[in-house]
Automatic annotation (TrEMBL):
Annotated source species: Nostocoides japonicum T1-X7
InterPro entries hit by this protein: ACT-like_dom_sf, ACT_dom, GcvR, UPF0237/GcvR_regulator
Matches recorded under CDD domains: ACT_GcvR_2
PROSITE patterns to which the protein is assigned, alphabetical: ACT (PS51671)
One Pfam short name: ACT_6
Annotated GO biological process: regulation of DNA-templated transcription
Protein name: ACT domain-containing protein
PANTHER family: UPF0237 PROTEIN MJ1558
UniProt domain ACT: residue ranges: 92-173
Length: 173
C-alpha cells in the first residue's frame, strides 16, 4: 500500500469531512488516522490514508478539486515507518498554568534535550473560573527512549515549571 499524509485547511463549514472522505473512498483509499479541529474559524487537520499503489496517482489528482472547499497538501508517507519503537515507552505529560507566551517552547525544549519525542500534543486556553485571565492547558503523549533518564527529565520539568509558573505532571501513559 502507498501511504499519504494529507494536511487540510479551509473555512469551517458543514460537510468538509464528508467531502474529503468521499474523495478518499471513491479512489480506493482507506482513512487510517486523523486529527481534525476547528481553530479560529478555520477547519484544519492531518489525515493518514493508504491506497493501492496503482490507485495512488488517481487519488492525488482527485484531491486537487477540493481546493475551493479545502486546501489539501499530499505528502508521501513512510510505508515502512515504525510507529512506536518497541523499546521506547510512553508517558503522558499534562501542563496547566496562567497563559503566557513561551510555554510550549520551554517544555518542548526540555523534552528535546532528553531525546523524547512528542507523538501527540493538544493545547487549549480557557478562562480561569475564579481568578480571571486565561489558563493554558496541554496534554501530550511522549515516547521515552531507553537511553533517557526519566528522573532527570522529571527534575528538569519541575525546575522549569517553577520558573515559568505552570504545573507539569509526567505519568505513565
Amino acid at each position: 500500500m502507498t501511504t499519504f499524509v494529507l494536511t487540510v485547511i479551509g473555512d469551517d463549514r458543514a460537510g468538509l469531512v464528508k467531502a474529503l472522505a468521499d474523495v478518499v473512498s471513491e479512489n480506493g483509499g482507506n482513512w487510517e488516522r486523523g486529527q481534525l479541529a476547528e481553530l479560529a474559524g478555520k477547519f484544519a487537520g492531518i489525515v493518514v490514508v493508504t491506497v493501492p499503489p496503482e490507485r495512488a496517482p488517481a487519488l492525488r489528482e482527485a484531491l486537487a478539486p477540493l481546493e475551493g472547499l479545502l486546501e489539501v497538501s499530499v505528502h508521501a508517507g513512510d510505508d515502512d515507518a515504525a510507529h512506536d519503537p518497541a523499546e521506547s515507552r510512553r508517558v503522558r505529560l499534562e501542563i496547566l498554568g496562567n497563559d503566557h507566551p513561551g510555554i510550549v517552547r520551554a517544555i518542548s525544549g526540555v523534552l528535546a534535550e532528553h531525546g523524547l519525542t512528542v507523538t501527540d500534543l493538544q493545547t487549549w486556553t480557557r478562562e480561569a473560573p475564579m481568578a480571571g485571565g486565561m489558563l493554558f492547558e496541554a496534554e501530550a503523549v511522549v515516547l521515552v527512549p531507553p537511553s533517557a533518564d526519566i528522573q532527570a527529565v522529571q527534575a528538569d520539568l519541575e525546575r522549569l515549571a517553577s520558573e515559568i509558573v505552570v504545573g507539569v505532571t509526567l505519568a505513565p501513559a
